[in-house]
Structure formats: C-alpha cells, structure tokens
Amino acid sequence: MTERPTTLIVCVNRRFQSDKGSCAEKGSEAFADELERGITERGIDIELERIRCLGQCAKGPAMRFAPGGKFFLGVQSADIADILDQAERLCGTRKPTRADSATKFFRDHNLLKSIPYKGYAQIFRNLLKILSTCDRHHSP
To answer: Which three-class secondary structure state does DSSP give residue 64?
Structure first.
C-alpha cells in the first residue's frame, strides 16, 4: 500500500546564463500559483512546496507528489485540472481554516502580487502553513 501524499512539490528552478532550460523558464512559477489557488478553492488536504530542483528540468516543468509519489513532467496549463483532481482523489479535502480564509482574502484583493520582494511572499506562505498547523492541532 502506498503512503498518502502530503505535499505537491513544484520545481521553480531558474537557470541564469545557461543554454539548458529550466522549469521556471517553462512556466512552473505560474503553474504553482494556479495549483495553490486550486488547492485552496477545493480545500484539498495537501501542501504545495516550491523547490529549486527535482533534477528533471530538461523534461520540465516538473512536479511530484511526496512522499514517494508520481512525477509530472512537461506539465502544461491544460494538465493543472487533472493534477488537482488526482490530489483531491489521493488526499481528500479538509475543513476550511483561518489560513485558507487569509489566503483567499489576500488573493481576492491581489495583495500577494503587491508584496515587493519575493522573499516576503515566501514568508507569508510559511506563516499560512504555521496557521494551518495550529488550526489542525487546536480545532474543537
């Protein structure tokens, strides 16, 4: 029996000054944004993690379920709905949390894009993960 995935890993590696392609160059950052929206809107019980490399940039954009899950290589915009469907089928849904509400608010008001430094956006995502963890451990 396979272990239930807890994370959808998306490579957002960007190679500068290289003749080799990269996942970010092929659209993985926008796909990660789209997946995060879908996960939140559907309430799928999985976290999305952006990492620098899955070692598959030549075949990218690359994504995979973890632990030990299937790779998605050469992902296109049309594949996002299928990946979300698979995530929902494998992981189920969860009851909305304060973190989900905060994320929806920030997205609805386009505040995530207004954060001037990308590092701040990552800090915000990490804060939302902490809030989600708190909600799971302290729910009635």
So the answer is: strand
Global pTM?
0.67
- Report how far apart, in Å, the C-alpha atoms of 139 and of each of 62, 96, 129, 134 are: 35, 11, 15, 8
- 129-140 residue pLDDT tens: 777 666 555 544
Per-residue pLDDT reduced to its tens digit, 34-47? 999 899 888 899 99
Q: How far apart are CA 18 and CA 67, in angstroms?
A: 31
Q: Is the bond into 116 cis (omega within 30 degrees of 0)?
A: no
